[in-house]
Each structure stands twice: as C-alpha cells, then as structure tokens.
Design brief:
Chain lengths: ~200, ~180
C-alpha cells in the first residue's frame, strides 16, 4: 500500500488490487476521520472563548486617589464560554491574543465646579508576577473630566493583549481598577457596567 | 448492503462484495457531499456577518437631545440585509445569533460642554462613552464607543450621539458590527 503525500490516504500499488473492498473501506474511513477532525476544529474556532459580565447594582463611594479594584461589581454573567467564572477578574483559558473591553458609567453625587474637574481612570490589568494585588501591567486607560457631564461620565476602554502563556500561580487575569481624584463629592459606578473579553487568535511563533 | 463510516456515513463495500463502478460512484458522491458540508463550515469561519456603514452626509444634532444616528451608505454589508440604506437606516439587524463586536464613531463634535456616543440593542442603551468639556481645543472632538454583546436573530443595534452645548451642530458618523462567535 502507498499513501498520498499530504493527508496519508492509502491506495494499492498497481500490482496489488486483490482486495478492493477492503482498500475502499480503508480509504473511506481515513477520509471520514480526516474531514471530521477538520470540521470539529473549525467548529471550535467558530466559538472562541468569550465572556461578558455586567453589574446589576450601583457601587457607591469609590476611595479617592487609589487604584481601586472592585471585585464584586461585575456580579452577573451574561455569557461565558471557556473562561473561569469570577466577579471582578477573568482568567483566560489559554495562550492567545485576546480583545477585551469595559464600559462603565460613573456618577457623581456632589457639586461640580468649574476648574475643579474630577477625573476617574479605569485600568485593565494583567498580573505579571507573584502578587495579584500589586504586580500587574497596566494595559489601557480611559480618563475623562466630569465637569459639565450630566447623568454620569461614561468610560470605555478596548484593547488587545497577547498572552503567550498562562502561569498557574498566580494565573494571568484581566482585572479592572477604578481611580478618581474627586475630593468634593462621592463617586459611584452605575448598574449596567460591562466587562467583556473574547479570544481573537492563537499565537504562532 | 454496504458498510459506512461512523461520522459522515460514507458507503463502502464489504469484503465479500464485488467492487464495481457503482462502489466508486457511491463513495465519490458521498465524499463530494462531505466536502461541500465541511466547506460550508469553512465559509462560516472565514466570512462572518459584518457591516461597515457611514452617513455620507452630515448628521444634525440638537443640544441636549440624544439622536438615533442614521447611515445612508454601506462600505460593506454581509449579508446585505444586515443594514439597509433605504429602510430603517438606523438599524443593524442581526442575521445570526452570536456575540457581536459593535463600534460607533462620531467625529466633529462641536466645542461644547460634553459629548456622548452610545450603542443600543433593540432601543436600549448597552454602552456609552462620554467626554467632558472640549472647549480648550481649537476644534471639536470625536468620541467612539465599542462593546461586545449577545444578540439573537432579528435583534438590532443602533448608534446614538448627544452633545451638550448650544443650538444645533452637524457630525460625521460611522458604525461597524462584526460577529465574533457562535453560541
């Protein structure tokens, strides 16, 4: 028996056609298995690991002038496939290129005065070392002045991060930090904030 | 009766059966069908529904009023029914259930107190992005917003824009929607 160059499909040599039925069965089964593997791989690619979390309640009183992680804010999982569930952060299921984003409306309960703009910075962070609480890489930020904005300041960050590997202790995590410099009033995050992530590609060297 | 493979049911003759032209024909037809079936999956992977629309005319906004944006030109729309440039031009109608990446961009906001660009799903706001005073700039600003959303067949996305300033203004708008994942 010989086999084809790329996929290894078997076929008899010119002087070896004494068992045609068996040879055809072998070819059919090889073709079946190869195509099935290809199609299953494509089905997997059609459903890349993704997650969407939202907040169902208002979070009040963000501390001033600190990078503040609210691990309880994203309390509702709208969609999840392949991610480890959690409330404030997300662990990607493996190496790859990931797109992620955050939408959050920040409300202020105090008086807004001209020239005393308030600001709030939102970071999506991926820890790089042993400490999840402090050793991380800030990868994207949205900062805005609140003065003049009625109904709250709507922040939006979107970015792409290549994660070459997922260490086990601690694992890489996509986390969200809020920060504001508002000394004169209370800052809240409205219900309906969104944290999302989806894998957009494998990494190939 | 011939045997058949376990996944796609490709027929093959048993050892005791005679191999003839019909054996090859049956197997070839079955393989042809399998290949076409797998190719459909390949097309789904490579050609996800997506649309990129703009309004080639300026869109008018009134201070303090959130406008539902309309788009009168498709730079791309797959399938064409994803966005019509003649009927309900504000709607991006989801052709397949899945996760969708949605972006709305509004440029040339005027010098004003605040600007907000938003995305709606079935008339409900799902994401917004605002900027505060831009009156220290020499020209107005642009604000874009992007989010990922679950959507079912027939759901529709829309873009919104708001400025808080004086009177009316005109802006340029674009919107992109792309399916990222099956459920």
């Amino acid at each position: 028996m010989k086999s084809t160059f790329n996929q290894g499909f078997s076929y008899p040599e010119p002087n070896d056609f004494g068992n045609g039925a068996l040879d055809l069965q072998l070819l059919a089964e090889q073709f079946d298995a190869k195509m099935f593997a290809i199609q299953q791989g494509m089905f997997t690619e059609l459903k890349p690991p993704s997650i969407i979390r939202t907040s169902s309640t208002l979070f009040s009183s963000i501390p001033i002038n600190v990078n503040y992680e609210i691990t309880s804010i994203f309390d509702t999982t709208t969609y999840i496939n392949g991610f480890v569930d959690g409330t404030g952060f997300m662990t990607p299921p493996g190496a790859g290129s990931y797109m992620y984003g955050v939408n959050a409306v920040v409300q202020c309960s105090g008086t807004i005065t001209a020239n005393t703009f308030r600001s709030l910075t939102l970071n999506v962070a991926i820890p790089t070392g042993a400490s999840l609480s402090s050793d991380y890489t800030k990868v994207t930020t949205d900062t805005a002045n609140e003065s003049g904005v009625s109904g709250g300041m709507a922040l939006n960050v979107v970015s792409v991060m290549d994660i070459p590997s997922i260490p086990t202790n601690p694992p890489s995590q996509i986390r969200v930090f809020f920060r504001h410099a508002n000394t004169g009033s209370t800052m809240n995050i409205a219900a309906g904030a969104i944290l999302w992530c989806t894998k957009i590609s494998n990494l190939v060297n | 009766m011939p045997g058949q493979t376990k996944n796609y049911g490709i027929p093959y003759p048993y050892i005791s059966e005679t191999v003839d032209a019909g054996s090859f024909q049956a197997m070839s037809n079955a393989m042809d069908g399998v290949f076409s079936q797998v190719d459909i999956t390949r097309q789904q992977l490579l050609h996800r529904p997506s649309v990129y629309a703009q309004n080639i005319q300026l869109e008018t906004l009134t201070s303090g009023t959130t406008a539902i944006l309309t788009f009168n030109n498709n730079l791309w729309s797959n399938p064409p029914s994803f966005h019509s440039t003649s009927t309900n031009t504000d709607r991006f109608v989801v052709p397949e259930a899945g996760l969708y990446l949605v972006t709305c961009n509004v440029v040339d906001y005027p010098l004003c107190t605040s600007t907000v660009t938003g995305i709606q799903l079935n008339n409900g706001t799902i994401a917004r992005h605002s900027e505060g005073p831009n009156n220290q700039l020499s020209i107005g600003g642009g604000v874009g917003v992007t989010t990922l959303s679950v959507a079912q067949v027939g759901d529709y996305f829309s873009g919104t824009a708001l400025f808080v300033g004086t009177g009316t203004t005109t802006v340029h708008v674009t919107m992109q929607v792309c399916k990222m994942s099956d459920f």
